[in-house]
Prior knowledge:
Helix content is about 85%, strand content about 0%. About 60% of the residues are buried. Helix 14 packs across helix 16 (about 430-450). The chain is an all-alpha fold and about 450 residues long.
Amino acid sequence: MKINANKKIANEQLLAAMLRQEDDPGRGQKLSIVWRFSVPAILAQLTSIMMQYIDTAMVGNLGAGASAAIGVVSTSTWLLNGLCSAVATGFSVQAAQKIGARQERDARHVLKHALVFALCFSGILMAAAIGISGPLPIWLGAGTDIQKNASIYFFIYACSLPAFQLQSLAGSMLQCSGNMRTPAILDAAMCGLDVVFNLLFIQFFGVPGAALGTALATIVICIAKLWAVCVSSPILNIRRKEPCPFRKAILSHMVRIGLPMGFEHIAICGAMILSTRIIAPLGTAAMAANSIAVTAESICYMPGYGIANAATTLVGQSIGAGRKTLAKSFSNLSTLLGCLIMTGAGILMYFACPLIFRMLTPDMQVQQLATDVLRIELFAEPLFAASIVASGALRGAGDSLVPCLLNLASIWGVRLTLSVLLVGQFGLSGVWVAMCAELCVRGILLVYRQQRFRW
């Protein structure tokens, strides 16, 4: 049976047909479906990054201090985002495997459990984040001139955590069902709303206005994504008359997948927070340059995360259908595609970053320093891509613990150690040399795991 991947049929239908084939699809067919799943996921990731660009550019016009205020708490927001994403992944991988096994009713049970757990979990995170919003900038070594703005920015962000958690979960569930297009469209809409709200609020409230604009955009899209998955999805829509007794196994499986990811995010973001402490004594200009360089570089690696999301869906459904050889093929092709795209993005960014930084901040010193450090790290993009996509593929197979341990060994054993050794002599450039070396090590470790994994 041959599947024509060029026909205009939904991705989820195409994947379902491929999984039902008795013979192994050709390389061209597999690459075609990897591409079809990856493009919407890449666009979704890029639109989320555009929101960061918008915030950074608008706030950057207020001066280096405003950029530094956001930068000093950015690692803490990434930590909380990562915990929310871990919960979403823990449930969505299960749903993908159930859908691959054609157990759609069980997939809907997973969604119902996920919604209740995610709401409770994000509420706890919100309360904790609000509680530490005041002293957090002080703990991170922020200067007195940026502490107030940093604290208010983090407080507003914390209040929006339930919306972020639920929109992340709804988007992941739609992707795991094979619907990559709807989350991409809604994420693009969120980017547009972010522009509108920021134009309205930043001029009146400054740095806190950026957080408020992003929070409101997130809330609106959260509602839209929940409608798309709970009402409009032909596979996952919640059916009132369908009983859904509590199943401990669903939560246990989520913990087995999500807990290592959660610890990984805690440890990695803890390392990033420690990196912020290492950079903070270098001054406001260094903090601002580090912040906007990280934001600019994200446009290179976010396509990798989009492909990783596609790989999680493709591998998860293949594993659920008992097609382990096909799962490994999807994993390999996705990793190759990620390396090619991120390498190309890194080359373009090497030449384009001076122009980008002129848009993000008017401070000439910050522009030059950000350009210098980002160009150091861009040499790691191919192996960074391999680490991102290989991790996503392994998550689809339910393997999150070993990748977590490899990531932790790399970032704590290589990046932080080298940062401490190099920052005194080379300043911010030394920290980014350490980052480049660590990303290369991480890529080698994750590709080795992917190839040795017993599919």
